[in-house]
Amino acid sequence: MITAINNATIYTGEQVLQGQSLLIRDERILDIVSPDAVPADATVTDASGHLLNAGFIDLQIYGAGGYLFSNDPSPAALEAVTNAIVRSGVTTYMLTFATNEMAVYLKGFETVQQHPHPALAGIHLEGPYFNPVKRGAHIEQLIRKPTLQEVNVLLTAAKGTLRMMTLAPEVTGDEVLRLLKDHGVIISAGHSNASFAEAMHGFANGIHTVTHLFNAMSPLHHRDTGLPGAAFLSDYAYASIIPDGVHVDWEAFKIAKQMMGRRLFFITDAVQEVLQGPYMHVKKADRYTLPDGTLSGSCITMPEGVRNAVRYGAVALDEALRMASLYPAEVMQAADLGRIQKGAKANLVMLNDELELKQVWLEGRIQSW
């Protein structure tokens, strides 16, 4: 069966198209054609002039739907988180764990292995291999240096579900970086006090991106530009940034965007309010904090992040959409995600002129809630 979406402004990731129809067959995009070329037997959806973009991608989500997954790595929690994430317009995400006990990681791997979902790309371990000086909201007693033995335990237990790891390059040996890279893990630098030289060495040895730029890392200092300076001057390293105006001031955001261009992409770093367990997050008006007031995760959705970047970050709409879809797909090296083109997965979001979410398609199926 073919589905046609008519009367949309289509943001493909490369072009903005009007007066065209998008054809979907099964879970893939079949083509973009003129309306008179839509097959007569196609099921037609009228987009009413709304914006159509590839589904959003969030590589760092801790919780949603009332659950912080690491506090309850159960099938019920996974289902609630995933349903809430898809309802927010994110059609691909990485479920994230903060620095934790090994048993929590192993339980999370098991749950994800046994309950796959087309929106769940895998697990992102943010920790435990950090510099304690830049621990942020992570539990200091659980932070440790990586060993080949422990990393092998994680990789073996994950069975391919460990897709991303944030670590501090200055505490991680090259042999660990090689091991992670050989297993296809996206390695990100974060919670790090790395010097410029240490960060660049990490980039040269398998680190591909940087986690929540500016937050929990060495500062951009004029005598040593640290991890932010290395990200700016790298030829290829990407960096995520939280577009809420809280974790990063909008002027710093603008500087980073000018320096990094298409290598800067959005995450929400979203958590849920929990008032018990090892990680407690307290909901404030525009953020989450630990009980002691330490800034933790954000409370924005990805569509809100896109709106913020356009309104406050001086980012053009088409570029803000790419920062939420195409660029994180590039980090994942996923050629069939984050763009609207022949053969890509039919993961789509429809937004109105105010950039409010109107509809979501996941692998060609309209999501209802």
Q: How large is the radius of gyration?
A: 20 Å
Strand content: 15-25%
Mean pLDDT: 97
Task: Quickly count the helices.
Answer: 10
Terminal CA distance reads 23 Å
Record field, number of beta strands: 22
Q: Which regions contain 5 or more consecutive residues with pLDDT less than 50?
A: none
Q: What count of structural domains?
A: 2
Could you tell me the CATH topology label of the largest domain. TIM Barrel
Shape: globular
For the record, the CATH architecture of the largest domain stands as Alpha-Beta Barrel
- Which sheet architecture does the biggest sheet show? 8 strands, parallel
Q: How does the helix and strand content classify structurally? A: alpha/beta
Q: Could you characterize the architecture of this molecule?
A:
- This protein has 369 residues and is α/β, with parallel strands linked by helices.
- It folds into two domains: 2-53 and 338-366, Urease, subunit C, domain 1 (Roll), CATH 2.30.40.10; 56-332, Metal-dependent hydrolases (TIM Barrel, Alpha-Beta Barrel), CATH 3.20.20.
- 27% of the residues lie in helices and 25% in strands.
- It is built from ten helices and 22 strands.
- The chain has helices at residues 75-87, 102-114, 148-158, 174-182, 196-204, 226-233, 250-260, 302-312, 317-323, 326-332, and strands at residues 2-6, 9-11, 16-17, 21-25, 28-33, 43-46, 51-54, 56-61, 63-64, 67-68, 90-97, 120-126, 162-167, 186-189, 207-210, 238-241, 264-266, 282-283, 288-289, 348-351, 357-362, 365-366.
- Strand 15, helix 6 and strand 16 (238-241) form a beta-alpha-beta unit.
- The two termini are 23 Å apart.
